[in-house]
Amino acid sequence: MSLLIKNGTIVNDDSMFKSDVLVLDGKIVEISPSIEPLPGLEIVDATDRLVIPGGIDPHTHMQLPFMGEIAKDDFHRGTEAAVAGGTTMIIDFVIPTKGESLLVAYDRWRGWADPKVVCDYGLSMAITSWGPEVAKEMEMVTKADYGINSFKFFLAYAGVFMVRDEEFYQGMIQCAKLRALARVHAENGAVIAERCEHLLSSGITGPEGHTQSRPEELEAEATFRACTMASQANCPLYVVHVMSKGAAAAIAHHRKKGAVVFGEPIAAGLATDGSHYYHEDWLHAARYVMSPPLSRDPTTPNALMKLLAAGELHLTATDNCTFDCHQKSLGKDDFTKIPNGVNGVEDRMSVVWDKGVHAGIIDPMKFVSVTSTMAAKIFNCYPQKGRIAVGSDADIVIWNDKATRVISKDTHHHAIDFNIFEGMQVHGVPETTICRGRVVWVNGQLRTVQGAGRFVPLAPDSQIVFSAVDNRGKALEPVKVERAPYEATSALAAPDA
Ligand code: URP
Ligand code: ZN
Ligand code: ZN
Ligand code: ZN
């Protein structure tokens, strides 16, 4: 468990410098220019390499039961894919079925994840129905040992996960009270349901129907509405999977008005587009079905990267939720039955480096920010995670920024038989991945142990999320005008007075 990383360039979100790093019992214990390689230390040579905080993917769905199927990457295969790609922590979602107790769902997810994860993980909680019991259980899971500090609301998937606006609003009031972050899947689910019916009855049954049922303005409208309601509730908001320029513009609009709102583009949306839905091979098109859909505007991926550079979007995730070809084929006669979701957790770091740093849009420090540090700050586990610093967990990646690799289903570690980035050559390769001081990926080989990852409890009241909220709340307090009681004058008195 003692490790010395020699001769690398450390990259944090705010600085880059050459130094050695000493790791003991899973923690970083020393950072200095030349640490003596004492006997018994495992030496990792990082000459000409970057030493970066392990990636944090704040949005995954391992083994999610969804649309009658179960996502193929479970917590074992999914976290193996993560570490092979330089990600050392994921934040997955507990998603109760409508009406189910949050506590029961929570225990189920912990039961799935704890014995399987090969890297650390945290949990976010979806709110799929509303009532006093849900509000009470929200309070319970933000306290004690449950470790939940964010709640996600779906404005899509009518009849399954979707909540109504008033439920979403009341949920955000509760989030603000508990100092928990509200997260939102922003699409107009009611209009989408109508459009699906219309498209199917017009004979459009293939994957092109998926994108046509969910035009970008339905994402932009729901994003704007979610931001507006969050402002009214004085609740910080985190918009998951920002897929379009319109949704990003809605976030920027509200930030310019002082709202605390974060936007999360995902690897798929940064590296590929919705032209695939029109591919003449049905299965090819079906593989890309996810919601919101990939943008049909081919300039969107580059535009989203530039918005990360400009600080109008804030961090990257993947929404990793994988279904294999057989599962996708269950929707062969009806696009609404194609299980929604794509891969990403293994390729996010390389994709963001390639499309961001290699393309000259962001620098290595911004790369660290959008792949790791921002997530650690927002979800309140910084600087335990998200930084190369003395006292931080030794979640470290030795990154070769000169190397390239070609993404392929034949070499990936996902449990599915295709990869949406198939054939893409990317610059930036994670050569060694270290989780809490243990080398779990080196020389293209996994050295993982099932269940070795730990659950990371996430406490409410993250500084970056809540520091501005109280003062904003004062400005939003209802105004009462103190007046003398109204006395009707004789001229205005009621006729029968
Ligand atoms: O298509 C998607 N995104 N599947 C996963 C569930 C969700 O909406 O996040
Ligand atoms: Zn979603
Ligand atoms: Zn998701
Ligand atoms: Zn394994």
Task: Provide structural commentary.
The protein has helices at residues 75-84, 102-113, 132-142, 165-178, 189-201, 208-213, 216-233, 245-256, 267-271, 282-286, 300-309, 325-328, 348-358, 364-378, 463-466, 469-476; strands at residues 3-11, 16-24, 27-32, 42-45, 50-53, 55-60, 65-66, 69-70, 87-94, 120-127, 150-154, 181-185, 237-239, 261-263, 396-406, 425-435, 438-442, 445-446. The strands form three sheets. Strands 1, 2, 3, 4, 5, 15, 16, 17 and 18 form a nine-stranded mixed sheet that branches. α3 packs parallel to α4 (165-178), α4 (165-178) crosses α7 (216-233) and α7 packs parallel to α8 (245-256). It has 16 helices and 18 strands. The protein has 497 residues and is α/β, with parallel strands linked by helices. The protein is globular and about 100 Å long. The protein starts with a strand and ends in a 21-residue tail after the last helix. The structure holds N-(aminocarbonyl)-beta-alanine and zinc ion (3 copies). One zinc ion (ZN) binds next to α1.
